[in-house]
Amino acid sequence: MGFHMSKCRLQSHGQGFSLVELLVALVFTGVLMAGMAVVFKTSLTTFVTSGEVISSSRRNRMAGDLLYDDIHNAGMYLFDLSTPPPVMPSNPPFYILPNQPVENASTTPGNDDPQTADEVYFYQDDPLPFEGKLVVPGSSAPKSASELVLADSAPAATDLTYTIDCTNLAYAKNVKVGQSLVFKDFFESVYITTIASVPTDQYVTVTLGPDPKASVTGRGYTGNPLKARHLAGTGIVFLRLGQMVRYRIRMVQLDPLGGRIPCLVRDQGDYGGTFVPTTTDVITENVSGFRVAISANSGQNWVGGTDLSATPPVPKSGYSNWASIRSDLDAQLATTSTSGKSVGRVGFTTTEGNDHWFRSIPVLVRTDITTRTATKRSEFSNTPTTSTAYREQTQTLVFVPRHFGLSMK
Question: Is the pTM of this model over 0.85?
């Protein structure tokens, strides 16, 4: 009996683990889990930070693409180039304002938000991205093409209301009072004074009248706007004439519960003595730097913009206004090369005395757009154990706007 009980106790002891064995296993498991936690945290941090850097790069490319397309429209005048529009000295049709205070920027030390950035302004005639077709050409009977050419007398007042097929409702709703339209059968630009009602389908009915901006845009009429009646079915081009566009950085509160974010914004409004925007669009967010420079000697030297030789890059010194930039641009144009020829085109070695100088003088335009990650992280800091920072990326675009260098003479 005693032997049997001893055997049973031996068997019971052999089926489990001792306390020492459990403690050893627990220590090894803890070490393994700690190692796995470190690997997991590193992988997660890499995933998050890489995603933020890629997102910043994507915003940079998107901002550059939109800016590239838009500045190519700078100096686009949709009228007889022998009579360019008058220029108001306080608001020239192309200029750069360097080192302007960023609107709504915080002055709290250490917030890393941009305090200054460049602003670029340019004039353009802006065609809407669709065309219409004339459905009802006024109350009088339409004339033939030959009669249109020979017509000298202005149509009656009853001929000033037209119904236009814009092909869909979304396009019809984009037709606004203050825009102009061009009849493709006679190619005259006419101002829209009233719209009958808010469109409910693809058709819009407009009434035409004197253009209050005729002296600014160089198009349209101050009296009875039409020279001739127009044919049903003729094409209609819609235009926003005499537009001024501005690109700049502005602190914008995108989240009602959050703080302001530096954004690259695009403002647009009618051209006048002072720039008053009527529309503002956020191009992209988390933009910490925007600099614009120009060059008349094929990029050998840049006027304004960023000093790319500095680490980190900083705004070029010595430029406080457009006059200082234009003065250095004139100095480039007046410089002679080793062959004895001036940098500028023959007869165009200065911008002075020519309000539309950019139409005759091709220059390179360079934009430096710096975007940053959405969050400050220790991984992006030079001293990661004691501070956090943003990761920034700068994209530089160099191009000749397609309407620059096209002489109006």
Answer: no
